[in-house]
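Lesson 9: reading folded outputs for more than one chain in a single document. The general rule is that every protein is listed as its sequence immediately followed by its structure tokens, and records are never interleaved. Here is the first one.
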Amino acid sequence: MVRRVAIIGAGACGLVSIKCCLEEGLEPTCFERSEDIGGLWRYTDSTDGGRVTVYRSVITNTSKEMSCFSDFPFPEDFPNYLPHSLLLEYFRMYARHFDLLQHIRFKTTAVSVRKRPDFAASGQWEVITETNGIQESHVFDAVMVCTGHYQEPYLPLASFPGIETCFKGRYLHSQKYKDAEAFRGKRVLVVGIGNTGGDLSVELSRVAAKVFLSTRSSTWLFNRVSDRGFPLDMVNTTRFKRFLDWLLPSALMKWIMFRKCNSWFNHANYGLASTKSSYFKIIINEELPFCLLSGTVVLKPNVKEFTESSAVFEDGTTEENIDVVLFATGYIFPFPFLEESVRSLFDNNRSLYKCIFPPQLEKPTLAIIGFVQLTGSVMVGSEMQARWVTGIFAGWNKLPPASRMMADVSKEQPPVKRNPSERKNLKLNFISYTDEIASCAGVKPSLLRLLLTDPRLALAIFFGPCTPYQYRLVGRGKWSGAREAILTQWQRTLKPLRTRVVDDSSDSFSGWCWRCLLALPAALMAGFLFSKYPRMGWSSQAG
């Protein structure tokens, strides 16, 4: 029986892991190398110590209703998309409310996590920590690694001939970027067009003399402000749309997505993407199209090589007088504190059972929390992982035999290895993955049962956004406020916008209700199919 659990990292994943341990009667001890909670989201001006944080101007890409912990909604007056300061404030509120801080040892680094000699029988781990230069050894029954994705910058200098030997300007990874002031008046080349590369290009365009954005892949842009002004993820991340994804041919769904994106602006005209692209990224950025349209950002293909002051691109064009190269090329995940025999068991999250457990271990007492890329909020997925894992540690949930876990892992492995920074193979559909883990934990709601017992709630769950509260309706950890939270989620979305109220007699809410009633047969069919085929495909999405 697991009792004592080591948790490494006090960011979002670490905090929710502490809470889940406490709910299951376990004894968590969290080791946090910095002096405070928040992890990535606790912004600091300093880049010393190798700690990765967000940049000063960052705003979340997922909305508050889709990102909150499942039994702790954001305050209703918080904006829908949050700056890092408000997200950190939310973490502090969560930690205070559930009395989590007393279980965290700050300024304590996990130096080593090794299996005990009797691991095959006990499943125990020896954890070496260091505080103020003094090392200490501990024995734990289980370990939850909560260090997340953003551990070590991926800087592929070997792929860019001349950057180290010829180029006289400055180059750096986006990890070291804090704000745009240091780039004022410079000619800047940003390499990589993920969410970070897009954001930084836009911000730099306001102060730099010129910004060039280099990409080697097609990229489709989405706007956080979606239909009728609602948050994108609340409109798009619904069980109804997931049902259509499962029901209709993938080529048709891709065509619909391309058409929707091009109704905003034609991506081919901007050099971003073509409907014929086989591999593509999806990023969230409202301002980049205008920057391209106004010429403050210039899109370029992949860099072929660097000279003393210029960048030569694969299409044969050259941009002269480049002052700074900013690599937005992602991160790798070394987990340096894990012993080599354990670390070698996985090189990405698909090497783990359900992206959590190394299946080769004799005892399932090591869990990697938050090591997953989803099409929605990783915070929500991480909480579901922690709930399931702590249920396993406490003996309520069971894992299948190792042979079945290995077979599952083999089935989910991507067919071709990609560049470490291109985590297409790590991005999973939010609803499919979260439902999968919720089913394992026994907390996935039954749509068919709800249609028979609480049709209003069932319709809100099926046609409305797949908010985290849905996973608190049944099973262990059931929350009495979950139903009310679901039925009032749109009110909390609109609340921070009601700072100036205007008269609008066209109430669209009643129209939405009528549409839901008309679509009741589709909901009944979906409920039956979801109960008959619970996985509905555990599919990836390019990104």
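And here is the second record, again sequence then tokens.
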Amino acid sequence: MFGLEKPAGQPKPGRSGGFPKMASVGDFNVLSSSIPATKVELSVSCRNLLDRDTFSKSDPICVLYTQAIGNKEWREFGRTEVIDNTLNPDFVRKFIMDYFFEERENLRFDFYDVDSKSPNLSKHDFLGQMFCTLGEIVGSQGSRLEKSIVGIPGKKCGTVIVTAEELGCCRDSVLMQFCANKLDKKDFFGKSDPFLVFHRSNEDGSFTICHKTEVIKNTLNPVWQAFKISVRALCNGDYDRTIKVEVYDWDRDGSHDFIGEFTTSYRELSRGQSQFNVYEVINPKKKGKKKKYVNSGTVTLLSFLIETEVSFLDYIKGGTQINFTVAIDFTASNGNPSQPTSLHYMNPYQLNAYGMALKAVGEIIQDYDSDKMFPALGFGARLPPDGRVSHEFALNGNPQNPYCHGIDGVMEAYYRSLKSVQLYGPTNFAPVINHVARYAASVKDGSQYFVLLIITDGVISDMAQTKESIVNASKLPMSIIIVGVGPAEFDAMEELDGDVVRISSRGKFAERDIVQFVPFRDYIDRSGNHVLSMARLAKDVLAEIPEQFLSYMRVRGIKPSPAPPPYTPPIHVLQTQI
């Protein structure tokens, strides 16, 4: 069964095979060309479901649907088992999904009381449904989302608890060091120049090279440097799979002489330095020819240290908050908002370029921000009542509290300020970058990370100051996303992005790449289907954030906080599966 755990227990009599197998999400992911950040396993429990059975309690099943990106059509992803006679099910069967930080994966959980063995859901009683996004589950405290079940007017349908667990996929690496003793002498004038070659075995019995040590010159008793290798590369996560190690004498012409070999496994190596990890190096040809042959030396494991690679999700689970700030360009180069040619045109029927960019990116980020309160700033406008020019004003008109509730609140404040301020200039980025940097500088312990979204027409006036602000901000827990709207040449924005040449100011280079620039015009769908362009835009804009986030944590040596203990459902009901 794709992507589902095998259900435990015996099939329910009379119902076996009644429900279809689950399809993997890859079957209908429009953007499946990207590599998933990770896989997550979703567990579903309900409390106080509706009782639709007269003489006993409901027999619930949960059906998960995902939404296609282009046409918004809901497609069935999979079903849990049926649990007899309970209003508080803890479903055993899990849903395993690809998780992409930069995509908004809409989910719908439908609940039914199963009345017969028919796989046709219309034949069963509907118990309600719950809508959410995968990011909302992952971004909830402890990656545990509790929400009311809705869908039956006038009825309390109970609650659903969905928990996300990242699947390890063997994220461990190992740091190992080896030495050898009394290796065979292979060189005529000197001793040998030994090195080791590691191979992992494949399912078909063949071997794949996975690591080579450095060469140690002129010795029969080498001590090689410690090296780090992922467990996946070493044994593909299979601890008992054979690992073959060959010992060679290096020759300048590349015709390295074979000294001998030995085999081991991850499980054996994991015992660390011990008598079990001293290996005889055997040369099969020599062994066949010489009766008195013992070995061609020994190789000893000196140390074995397991390191677990941490992921973006580990930090989110441990409580790290993503704080999202929006800054919008209100300079005169955008054009008069009352004219259709303006990038700020207030069209009553559809979003303008600024509104589209804001909604696309914001809707994804907001799932990771627990209070959903976003500071929203504007720059480059003259403000009422006195017409002073500001490069850092609150869109909601309240400098003491520039927070807006959710992306809808930001959109509302944006449209309101368009009516009250006068577009002016110049286009200065540095003040809004410094504004967010002040907050980021006050929490460097890994508990918070700041993302500034600047939406601009790309005509920048303070390039030198902006570069300096970015170089300074690269030491802080923050990233900057610049979305360029309109037809301008965005050479200056490309320079700030720093993907080709690392950005510098006064001879100082940015500690890490923190800027991602995307030109909005590349994502506008000519047919006017804004949804597809939004999905692609959000994807390209946000794909670099997890790596930028991890690079900050790594440089600072910040480990994720432990996740809160997993939720244990208070009620345990005898479960049966179909």
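What the second record shows: The first helix runs from residue 134 to 139.
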